[in-house]
Amino acid sequence: MSRTVIRGGTVITAADELLADVLIDGEQVVALTAPGSSLAESFSADTVLDATGRYVIPGGVDAHTHMEMPFGGTYASDTFETGTRAAAWGGTTTIIDFPIQTVGRSLREGLDAWHAKADGNCAIDYGFHMILSDVTESSLKEMESLVDEGITSFKLFMAYPGVFYSDDGRILRAMQKAGDIGGLVMIHAENGIAIDVLVEQALARGQTDPRYHGDVRHALLEAEATHRAIQLARVAGAPLYVVHLSASEALAEIANARELGVNAFAETCPQYLFLSTDDLARPGFEGAKYVCSTPLRPAEHQAALWRGLRNDDLSVVSTDHCPFCFKGQKDLGLGDFSKIPNGLPGVETRMDLLHQAVVDGHIGRRRWIELACATPARMFGMYPKKGTIAPGSDADVVIYDPTARQTVSAETHHMAVDYSPYEGKVTTGKAETVLSRGRVIVSGGEYLGSAGHGRFVPRSTCQYLR
Question: Tens of pLDDT along 202-223?
């Protein structure tokens, strides 16, 4: 096993900022020491990396991705190989993806299918949540065995009737089981039954363009579903994690619950912080590039989301990375916005967009690392193995240039999708060198990793429960 020292950088974790050398033995960090200390000087390293003038940060943990996900008659365009390679380019070294239970089938069958997709193909480490599409006595029993295997979180949908939708009774049963076994229920909180009525009415009026996707998925229907999910979780005595929160009204529901001491958590995503309904309304069919659910909101919602990130009513920034090409996939919805595959690419751009938020004064540097690395690792039972730089942690480390300027473009990104929702946006900051478990996988503009390096990471339970 090789030994590496990273010298001269400013180490930034959720807790600290300090000038330190990072000593790595094999796949683990073994010490942080003052630059030039006797320990650093005596450490016999095979590789010395100079981080002078750079940040040394933990590899990002993206707790919400959908590689190869089937949706709307097609599949997300990134495979586990292409998607994890793109993540590495952007400074993310761990993802958590979502195996899907098919209605009428077991959780095990869905989980095995995702293991087969990921095993031997990932450039970085990965874990799994489990999507429950069919809550039965059998699937509730299976939840217990999955927790024992390190899959400790379960996602249910209040949206997409006829596909993923679960009614309140099924959600309550899943929450009760999760509460009993230490699991965490993740909820896609939108009132899908009401949304389907609004979709039908909009199409009947001839409102077929992508912009109407945002109108029918009304912010109040996100807030209503969020409120309902919170109350169900309180009745069940179980924790709740709301995914991809986008609306200020939904955030108010989370904030109120947390004020009451409820174990209610929520994430948002970069698209809700940097994009808006103005993008959905782009001329022609261009708005299809921005169709995702929950949908983009009017720009005035962004201030509330940034405030929620600062005061910890929003705990995590994930991507909901679920890319579909504009040509050949998004255009399935030409003439009917309801047939546009829902999802945006983002696994490669998250760390840089959040660093831009530091540059712009929305959040501080340690909060950047907290939102993108430490909290998702703690939330989903990976900390301190992931999400920090400390003795004993995995050597998932990024040497980050905080002054590098780059222009986001589909021509230069590494995701397997033919557009970028942030095309032309100039950001400051870039991952310069990326290590995954002590191995340099990106350096100097070159990819040095390989499919199969990434390993499945069994997870413990949420580390935030009160």
Answer: 999 999 999 999 999 999 999 9
